[in-house]
Amino acid sequence: MGIQERKERERERRRQQIIVAAKRVFSEKGFNKATMEDIAKEAELSPGTLYLYFKNKDELYASLSLRILQYLNIRLDHVAKQEGISTEEKIEALKEAMFDVYDFDPLVTINMFHLQSSETLRNLSPELLDEIKGLSRSSLGTISDIFQEGISNGIFIDKHPVALADILWSLFSGVVLWEESKKIIDGGKDYMKQTLETAFDIFGRGISKSVA
Predict the structure, then answer these.
(1) CA–CA–CA angle 83, 70, 145 (5° rounding)
(2) Is the residue at 212 inside a domain?
(3) pTM of the entire predicted model
């Protein structure tokens, strides 16, 4: 292994060390109360070292979403490319994929949904923003392709597939954020799975030509 490769591996290891520490701090204190100094202390690094990897707290917060977006893309791509299954089965697999993404890392999934509706995006480096945009567009594009298949086969109502993808994504993010808020109100009771199941079922019935 060359010197440059070792340096790159060390840099990536340190970057992941910071991200893991940030996740713990954001989980305990929330975004607004957490500081770069808190994260540096958790990572056992100097605050100055953090700024070598992330230009501000917003960028560090946003970086947490990259892993979940990458995982989402992998799961959706797998659904879209499955052969020998019907469009209805793909929609069911799509629902399971979105459940799996939430289960994979609930905290970061919630972080991602907060991010998409916040001013944080305006404070990111162009490189990080482009990466988030690219992954998000890829996810929605794959979902849209599945809906287009259903429309072309006469299974779904003839509505723009991108609009259907946007609605499904809004449904998913809205339910996750609302149910997380309800945990505080209802003393930690978790209705996430049941609510998502109901929401996806109603959505599926709404776009099906056999029901419409």
Answers:
(1) 40
(2) no
(3) 0.83
